[in-house]
Design brief:
Keywords: Coiled coil. InterPro entries: DUF6435 (IPR045493). This is DUF6435 family protein. It comes from Halomonas llamarensis. The two termini are about 25 Å apart. The chain has 2 helices and no strands. By secondary structure, it is an all-alpha fold.
Protein backbone atom coordinates (compact mmCIF):
# COMPACT_ATOMS: atom_id res chain seq x y z
CA UNK A 1 0.00 0.00 0.00
CA UNK A 2 2.79 2.43 0.85
CA UNK A 3 4.51 1.61 -2.43
CA UNK A 4 2.07 4.02 -4.06
CA UNK A 5 3.84 6.97 -2.45
CA UNK A 6 7.37 6.05 -3.53
CA UNK A 7 8.82 8.17 -6.27
CA UNK A 8 10.18 6.61 -9.41
CA UNK A 9 13.91 7.41 -9.56
CA UNK A 10 13.95 6.77 -13.31
CA UNK A 11 11.32 9.46 -13.88
CA UNK A 12 13.35 12.06 -11.97
CA UNK A 13 16.52 11.12 -13.85
CA UNK A 14 14.65 11.41 -17.14
CA UNK A 15 13.46 14.90 -16.23
CA UNK A 16 16.99 15.92 -15.20
CA UNK A 17 18.34 14.48 -18.45
CA UNK A 18 15.88 16.44 -20.57
CA UNK A 19 16.58 19.61 -18.59
CA UNK A 20 20.35 19.24 -19.16
CA UNK A 21 19.84 18.73 -22.88
CA UNK A 22 17.68 21.86 -23.01
CA UNK A 23 20.33 23.87 -21.17
CA UNK A 24 23.03 22.52 -23.50
CA UNK A 25 21.01 23.56 -26.55
CA UNK A 26 20.50 27.06 -25.14
CA UNK A 27 24.22 27.37 -24.36
CA UNK A 28 25.02 26.31 -27.91
CA UNK A 29 22.65 28.90 -29.34
CA UNK A 30 24.33 31.56 -27.22
CA UNK A 31 27.74 30.54 -28.55
CA UNK A 32 29.04 29.10 -25.28
CA UNK A 33 30.55 25.87 -26.56
CA UNK A 34 32.37 25.10 -23.31
CA UNK A 35 29.10 25.15 -21.33
CA UNK A 36 27.44 23.14 -24.10
CA UNK A 37 30.10 20.44 -23.85
CA UNK A 38 29.90 20.32 -20.06
CA UNK A 39 26.11 20.11 -20.00
CA UNK A 40 26.08 17.47 -22.73
CA UNK A 41 28.57 15.38 -20.76
CA UNK A 42 26.40 15.66 -17.65
CA UNK A 43 23.35 14.65 -19.70
CA UNK A 44 25.19 11.60 -21.03
CA UNK A 45 26.08 10.48 -17.50
CA UNK A 46 22.40 10.82 -16.52
CA UNK A 47 21.44 8.74 -19.55
CA UNK A 48 23.89 6.05 -18.46
CA UNK A 49 22.25 5.95 -15.02
CA UNK A 50 18.82 5.68 -16.64
CA UNK A 51 19.95 2.75 -18.75
CA UNK A 52 21.48 1.09 -15.69
CA UNK A 53 18.13 1.35 -13.89
CA UNK A 54 16.31 -0.08 -16.90
CA UNK A 55 18.67 -3.07 -17.03
CA UNK A 56 18.08 -3.98 -13.39
Amino acid sequence: MFGLFKRDPKKKLQQDYERKLQQAMEASRNGDMRANATLTEEAESLLAEIKKLEAS
